[in-house]
Amino acid sequence: MKQYGTVICREIHKKIYGRNFKLMDEVNLGVDKDELKIFLDIGAHDNMCPTVAGLSAMWTIEILWDELPKGIDVSKMPSASEALKNFKPKNNK
Q1: pLDDT (tens digit, 9 = 90+) per residue, 14-47?
Q2: Does 47 reside within a domain?
Q3: Is residue 4 part of a domain?
Q4: Could you tell me the residue range of the domain that residue 20 belongs to?
Q5: Residue 3, domain member (yes or no)
Q6: Whole-model pTM?
């Protein structure tokens, strides 16, 4: 919120590029190819999207780190791959 004033992609587009992009063609229920071309031509997927996603991941880690109980030995915490081995999806039957 501090950086972009919103967490909504189309509003972040507006802040960065001065406009938002309507990438969905709601009539044909597909991608609006003209809008997508403009979006790609300005390098949004090359620069803006990865930057915003990376910053969001970094801020999430900072928040989680601050929420860890103080004095915890993080060296004993499982890695993401180790944690995934213990993950068992809920059986929807």
Answers
A1: 999 999 898 887 777 788 889 999 999 999 989 8
A2: yes
A3: no
A4: 9-86
A5: no
A6: 0.65
